[in-house]
């Protein structure tokens, strides 16, 4: 399973890229708003993210309400850099836009996917990436991991005539990361805090402390 970073924060991207584990970045309106950026800065900000991870897919979301609006946004965003992927919601308008953009060779990440039918429709319309959400199911006391596993099973059983990768999204915990991999997700898009937690384990910390302590004994001997 590959890791994408789920953030619009340039410092977080810079650091995670330096770890050598990041294969792409996903953003959304909420994540961009958290940076304090204004609408006028949006496209420039996407350009900066693309520069930080050249050649790696960077998802930039359209907020348009019509298929025509989404296509217009997508063409403008795709012109920012070769590695821009257009993020569109799964909806009749989103599917129509995805279909048109796939024919133009513009890659789409279809987002806000919660069910197997939505995932199948997204892939069938031409989406390059399909993003089923985990954490938002947990938020309403449903089993997000089980839903994700169902989407992985369904998508991996079909040939859509083009490459489709599943991005486990709305990943909030290291447990979600593990379950996404076990479910067969191609990619998990992970917030930086969750990525940092995924590196940690109390036994790693305890083991390291013991090694340091014993090394001091060797140095003092
Ligand atoms: C990424 O593609 C999604 O927009 C993101 O993972 C949603 O995460 P959230 O449910 O924690 O907001």
Shape: globular
Strand/helix succession: EHEHHEHEHEHEHHEHEHH
**What are the low-pLDDT stretches, counting only 5+ consecutive residues below 50?**
none
Task: Average the pLDDT over all residues and give the rounded result.
Answer: 97
Q: Name the strands of the widest sheet in spatial order.
A: 1-2-3-4-5-6-7-8
- Count of DSSP strands: 8
**Rg from Cα:** 19 Å
Query: Which ions and ligands are bound to the chains?
Result: erythose-4-phosphate
How much of the residues is beta strand, in percent? 15-25%
Given the helix and strand composition, which structural class is it?
Answer: alpha/beta
What is the number of helices? 11
Give the biggest sheet: 8 strands, parallel, barrel
Distance between the termini: 46 Å
Helix share of residues? 40-55%
Assembly context of the chains? single chain
List the main descriptive attributes of the protein structure presented here.
binds erythose-4-phosphate; 17% strand; 8-stranded parallel β-barrel; alpha/beta; 8 strands; 221 residues
């Amino acid at each position: 399973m590959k890791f994408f970073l789920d953030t619009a924060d340039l410092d977080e991207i810079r650091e995670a890229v330096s770890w050598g584990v990041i294969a792409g970045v996903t953003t959304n309106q909420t994540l961009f708003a958290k940076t304090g950026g204004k609408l006028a800065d949006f496209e420039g900000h996407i350009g900066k993210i693309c520069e930080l991870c050249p050649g790696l897919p960077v998802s930039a979301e359209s907020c348009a309400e019509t298929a025509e609006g989404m296509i217009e946004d997508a063409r403008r965003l795709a012109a920012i850099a070769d590695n821009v992927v257009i993020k569109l919601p799964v909806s009749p308008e989103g599917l129509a836009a995805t279909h048109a953009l796939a024919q133009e060779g513009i890659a789409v990440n279809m987002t806000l996917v919660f069910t197997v039918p939505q995932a199948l429709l997204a892939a069938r319309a031409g989406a390059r990436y399909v993003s089923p959400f985990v954490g938002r199911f947990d938020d309403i006391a449903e089993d997000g991991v089980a839903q994700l596993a169902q989407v992985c099973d369904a998508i991996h059983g079909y040939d859509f005539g083009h490459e489709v990768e599943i991005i486990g999204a709305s990943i909030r915990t290291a447990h979600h990361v593990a379950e996404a991999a076990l479910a067969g997700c191609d990619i998990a898009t992970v917030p930086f805090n969750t990525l940092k937690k995924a590196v940690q384990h109390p036994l790693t910390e305890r083991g390291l402390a013991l090694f340091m302590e014993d090394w001091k004994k060797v140095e003092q001997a």
